[in-house]
């Protein structure tokens, strides 16, 4: 499917745009391709854009003072990713986003998102529900982190995103779960 | 300040409504008062409303299988609270919300929120940004949970919400931080 069709189908699940409105909306996106390992957002940078994933897989992560990596989010096709803290508050990035595989994304600037939300009510409707879902997913992950042990978190991840296990190296899954590779291996073989 | 004025001032920070629009918007809210200890949302219930806090303090929490309490959120004046997972997906509540003090809230039903968002573009704009901010706060808390030890999380909480320490019993602050009361006492006296 073409980039435009993928986005159109994605938006249509939440908002009703006429073909004309969608064409106008789409004209504000830039198609970008990245190679495995390339970086879209770097800690300390300004963040002007958010990304709609067309193909491939990215990770949003940060490295703490002990050089330990924590993965905040994987982003797969039809997911949106950015450093939203930086994007929404005009601050510098506090996380990094890079490509686990070759990646194709559609990029939308923050200025254009606000302009489009202002011009087309249904675009604002779409972005409200996009963030509502993100908020709920984030709260669920927090609850899971507070309450569940590594085994339960591993099983939740497996149930939610079975495709991750073919796409993503095991050490990155460990970094998402906040456990060591050895612990993950034990869980993996026990499964 | 009156309930209506508090909400009006809160909305005006994000969205531009005419007086007429705001009066119409406000007519959909119900003013409710609760006594300390009363419950607004109970695990397993249907959730139809969200709450804008006028006075007092609430906690959103869940109790796990080992009868350990985890606090997801405190809600203070001008904050919004509900079980958004249940509210947005029409599911049963997975958390509880009750009153730490006597509380006054304005209650808005989910059906009315969607109707108002549809009828008044600026109301949709308000709720989009309300959730954007909630999403960012939730991501920050997740990062903090993944990366920081109890001491750092305690200091973050103290910096963010100094007023909490006069309002909220210490064992609830421990439940928010995910630590024991003994550990909190050590942090508290060391501060």
From TrEMBL, chains A, B:
Pfam families according to UniProt: cNMP_binding (PF00027)
InterPro entries: cNMP-bd_dom, cNMP-bd_dom_sf, RmlC-like_jellyroll
Gene3D superfamilies reported for this sequence: Jelly Rolls (2.60.120.10)
Domain Cyclic nucleotide-binding: 13-94
Protein name according to UniProt: Cyclic nucleotide-binding domain-containing protein
UniProt source species: Chitinophaga oryziterrae
Lineage: Bacteria, Pseudomonadati, Bacteroidota, Chitinophagia, Chitinophagales
